[in-house]
Amino acid sequence: MSFGRPPSISTGFQVTPPDRGSFPLDHYGECRDFMTAYMNCLRNNNNSSTPCRHLNKAYLECRMNKGLMEKDDWKNLGLSNVDKEPKPTKDPAGDKNLS
């Protein structure tokens, strides 16, 4: 038995693809702006992802377009019903007629 090398080398090393959800790091910061916007949204909403889902979709779309993750259907990612832009919310106070 030799020291300094992993035991798997002597029995044969087999490459396996990463688990679903694991993907390469964005070393060149190609999607940094999308990631920063999403993280800021989470921080501003007490880590609730619901109001930030449109930013999550934009970030994942950037990663898919840049080859940083495998392309997948939005329904498989849980984002099929999310628009790219958030829908404006109505201000209940703004709906009153002051005339």
UniProtKB/TrEMBL annotation:
Signal peptide: none
One Gene Ontology biological process: mitochondrial respiratory chain complex IV assembly
GO cellular component: mitochondrial intermembrane space
Alphabetically ordered keywords of this record: Cytoplasm, Disulfide bond
Presence of keyword Disulfide bond: yes
Compartments where found: Cytoplasm
Chain spans, region Disordered: 73-99
Protein name per UniProt: Cytochrome c oxidase assembly protein COX19
Species in which this protein is naturally found: Gloeophyllum trabeum (strain ATCC 11539 / FP-39264 / Madison 617)
